[in-house]
Amino acid sequence: MATETAIERKTIKTVQADQDFINRIVDAGAEHLKACIQCGTCTASCPSGRRTAYRTRQIIRSALLGLKDELLSDPNIWLCTTCYTCYERCPRKIEIVNSIIEIRNMAVEAGHILPAHKVASQKLIEFGHAVPIDDPKWSTLRKSLGLPEKPPTTASSDEALKQVQKIAKLTNFDRLVGYAWK
Q1: Region of 82 on the Ramachandran plot (φ > 0 left; ψ -120 to 50 alpha; else beta)
Q2: Of 67, 139, 151, 163, whose CB neighbour count within 10 A is largest?
């Protein structure tokens, strides 16, 4: 028998729903979220759900019920790959991925971010890349393959990196991910 999550065990009355939370998700582009009929097509077609505990329908149901605290702290919200398969197959054309992205944004604002995402975000600010390229072995490997030490991206453009860092400061992204400026 599979273990139940805290969300599955809790009985919720609709009058307890956090309407501001629901409206924020709807306003983020998931206008049809309230039209969800819980058919399960999103979960059945989700590639992440085949190999993880991620259940798209459960996330959407929790959002509709306004289970803000439980949902924002649920590590499963980070398992969505944003492939849009759920949206393409949804009979109601609910913009599920937009909902998931907004839920993630709220989770980060509330201080719920996976450690690996925090590290990737900090690397993005520091190096212009979320994928680690700060280890000297990568530049050595690139040179051995006849490539420039840095890829032709933000990492090799001081001006582009400054722009990324400026955006991080202006949007307070640096504070959200706990980046320590040097």
Answers
A1: left
A2: 67
Structure tokens at 87: 């949206």
pLDDT digit string, tens, across residues 116-162: 989 999 999 998 888 777 788 988 999 999 999 888 888 888 999 99
- Which range among 18-32, 85-99, 102-116, 122-136 shows the weakest confidence by mean pLDDT? 18-32
Say which amino acid occupies 63: A
Q: Taken in order 96, 98, 104, 106, is the CA torsion positive or negative?
A: negative
Q: Which SS3 state, helix, strand or coil, does residue 93 take?
A: coil
